[in-house]
Every structure is written in C-alpha cells, then in structure tokens.
Amino acid sequence: MAAGDRPSRLPRRLERVLRWAMPLGLVLVVLGLWELGVRWHDTPHYILPGPVLVARTLVADWHTLYPSLLVTLRVTFSALAVAVVGGVGLAVLFTLSRWIELSLFPFAVILQVTPIIAIAPLILIYVENTHLALLICAWIVAFFPILSNTTLGLNSADHNLVDLFRLYKASRWQMLRFLRLPSAMPYFLGGLRIAGGLALIGAIVAEFAAGTAGTGSGLAYRILEASYRLNIPRMFAALFLISMAGILIFLALTLLSHLLLRKWHESAVKRDG
Amino acid sequence: MRADTPSGATADALLELRGVSKTFPNGTVALDGLDLDVGRHELLCMLGPSGCGKSTALRLIAGLGEASAGRLAWPNGGSAGDIGFVFQEPTLMPWATVFDNVHLPLRLQGRGRRRAGEAVREALALVGLDDFAGAYPRELSGGMRMRVSIARALVTRPRLLLMDEPFAAVDEITRHRLNHDLLDLWQGQGWTVVFVTHSVYEAVFLASRVVVMSARPGRIVAGFEIAEPYPRDDAFRLSESYLHYCRQASAALQQAVG
Q1: Closest by alpha carbon to B146, among B199, B102, B108?
Q2: Whether pLDDT at A5 is above 70
Q3: Nearest to A170 among B80, B96, B108 (CB)
Q4: DSSP β-bridge partners for residue B192
Q5: Does the interface predicted TM-score (ipTM) exceed 0.85?
Q6: CB-based contacts of A60: which residues, under 8 Å, 6+ apart?
Q7: Which of A170-174, A178-182, B9-13, B40-44 has the lowest mean pLDDT?
Q8: Hey, are the CB atoms on A178 and B136 less than 8 Å from each other?
Q9: Minimal-distance CA residue of chain A relative to B61
Q10: What is the arrangement of strands in the sheet containing B220-225, beginning at the earlier edge strand?
Q11: A49-261 sits in which CATH class?
Q12: Domain boundaries, position B143
C-alpha cells in the first residue's frame, strides 16, 4: 500500500519509538509525583517511602535481597520446567487415550480450582523438605494452563490434515510428531506465558505460607521479615524485585513465542497496511 | 439417458464400485447402491447437487471410511495406497514450507529430505512452483496454495488422483488457469483422475466422461462421454459442442435433483 493512502498515520519509525517512550514516560511521571508527594507531605518512610529511598534500599540491601531473589527464581523455574514436562506429557497421554483423559482430568481440575493458599500449609506439613514443598505449590498452579491449553491444541489439528495423514497411513507417532504437536504449539505457548507468571505467584504464596527463616529463603520471606521490623523501604524493594522478575519472565516467554511462531502463525505475523 | 447399468464401463477398469452404500451413524443415507467404473487414464467428473454424497464416494475410494454395503475392487491390482487426494481447501500445514508440505507424503513413508528431494522438486516443477520451495503457505495466493496441494498429491506418483471440488474456492480466472494446467498435466502424465464438482461448465470442460449423481441418497443416474479431443483451450469454451454438452449435463442434473 502506498504511503499516500494514509496521510494521517505517524511515520513508522516515530510510531515505534513512541510505543516504548509513552509508557516509560508515564511511569517516570508517576514516580516523580510519588517522590514529590512524599517529600511535600513529609510522609514518614515507615508508612510510605519515596522511590528514591526504595532504590537506595535496594542497593544497600542487595546482599540479602539478591540471594533471596535467586531462591525464588530457582523455585519458579524448576516448577515451570516440571509443569512443562508434566503438562505436555499428560496432554499427549490424553490424546492417545480417551480413558486416561476421562480418569485424570477431574484431578487436574480439582488441583486447579482449590486455592493454593489453602493447600500450601498441608503440603508444608506432609513434605519435609521445604524447597520441595515450595516447588510442589508453584507447580500446582503452573501446571494446569499448560495441560489444558496443550490438550486443546493437540485436539484442534485441521481434520482434513488428519484425513490426509490417515490416507498416507501415518502411524500414531507420525501423526503426533508431524501434525498434532505443531498444531498445538501456539496453544502451548499461550499456556506457557500464563504459567510463567503463575509459577512465580505460586512460589511467593507458598513462601508466605512457609514463612521459613534462615538461609535459602526467598523474597516473600524478606517481605514478611521486613514487615515485622517495620522496614517498609525494604518491603518495597523486595516487591519491586518480584514485579521485575514477573515482567522479565513474561517478556522472555513472549519473545520465545514470537520467535517460534513468527513465520507462520496469525498471532505473530506482521501485516502491512 | 438414464443409466441403470453402470455407465461407461470399460474393460480396462482401474477401479470398480458395485452397489456401494453408506449410512452414517446418525442415520443419514449418503450413498445408496452406487455403481461406478473408473477406467484407466480417464478424467472422470462426478457432477451432482450439493450434499449428494460425491465427497463421501471419494472418501470411500480413498479408504477414509468403510462402505456400509457393496464392494470396491481394483481389478488390475493396486490399492488405496496408490492414491493422491486433493481437498476442497488447500489443507496445507501452515508451519511448514512449501517444500516440507509437498515432502509430507514421502516423509510419512520414511523417505527423508535428501532421498525425497528430487521427487519433491519434480512435483513442484510440474505445478510451476519451483521458485517457491522455501515459502510459507501464508505467503502464497489462493491459487498457488491449491497448486502446492496438487503437487503434494502428485509427489508419490499415484495411479489415481482424487479431487474433491478443488477449485471451488478460487476466483474464476484462477479457476480457468488451474483447469488448463490440470488438463496439461493429465495429458502429459497419463494419470487417472476422478474430479468431483458441482459446476456443469467445469465438468464438461475437463472431463473425458461425466457421471451425474442424484440428490441424497446419491446414485449415478446418468453418464456420457465428452467426445472432444484434447488439448482443449479457451476456444472450446465458446464452441457449439461445448454448449451442447453443457445443456445435456444441465438437463441430466436437473432431472437428478428432480
């Protein structure tokens, strides 16, 4: 389409810059107003610290916050990895056998609909290893979106293509490998993006329930600890790290999804005009 | 023109259908006593109203389903394995390149990229898409996607090519071009083609023989040869004899819908 057809639109490059600059600018404005408000009213930092103080605390307490961040991330990623393997594996089993699906799907739903905060104390009682208990909690919430999305994807292969595979006497394995798995890819990746955020939430919630002290404790414990000591700036710093981790996980998984689908799937294909 | 006997039976039949019926589990009777011979090297067009069981017949021939009654025989040997199928839609895998889409039937037979490479390129050359091996389906026009679909059906060098209203979804100019190309290919390669369509004009232009099916439950109610020489070009579309055959086919179709 000729450029003359849409004179009202912004030039492409400017549009691209603005897409980043606008939200970033807004964040800066909000932070600025926050800092100004806190200074103007002389708000005590144990009620609401300004962003500058939070940033300073983040740097000063980095030696305690960073190891905690690593602990939380380790739980999150292990849970996500297990959820991917388990979710995709079970979804494949479901498509291979209707009976397995009918028997197991209700359990998956029960796990999904029961709030994790309600099961976490039980899991912490039954599983002695706290790290493992946290991992199980994070896994429970991350697992379902991957399972249900992948199952949906495996079953939504084009039925004409299924016929074509049957015409050429494709084995079950070939049908899975060349047709069902690629068809399920966009669905799986959609589930993975949801699961990434949920795994982090699951890990944090479980840590709150555990409330363990000592070495090897995650960011949620730092928040609990800071709240007992009324160290609100540190609470905010830990909170900031959790949000950043969540955003980065989401962005990384979005990028992964884009890279895998950009050649063919409608959701990732760039359109002109 | 009513044909109660199998119409146009040839001694050199590739495939015989005798009294083939198909009733679906929901009680729909799609086919009722279908008799049909498909001669070697013929381009047979099955013409019929929508929902008359044309596609069902094609699927039975392809082995995608069991007939409820009657039998299907390959008198001179061969089997459902020697079949290429072109669907109404291009039915391509969107995540795979043109090359990989055409490669699929050979890959399912255990022939890897390298061993199948030449056959795939040959099939692509036949449909004039040599330069698009690396393209993805979404980058192609509707007509080109259909060509890929045809190349995929040809890559195994099938003895019988089944086409289920393949050009129904493309625009008229593209359809005419694809019709011409199909005729060229058919003449050059000596295949047997069963082509299902609901268009009288397309059937008469393409076919060496036309059979007309009744409304559901489908049976063959008429059949006639199109005794016009190939190659057929656009001049044929304007000729008296073309019109004559079209009238004949329309009348038969009218009666079939009756």
Answers
A1: B102
A2: no
A3: B108
A4: B160
A5: yes
A6: none
A7: B9-13
A8: no
A9: A167
A10: B83-86, B160-164, B192-197, B43-47, B209-213, B220-225
A11: mainly alpha
A12: 92-158
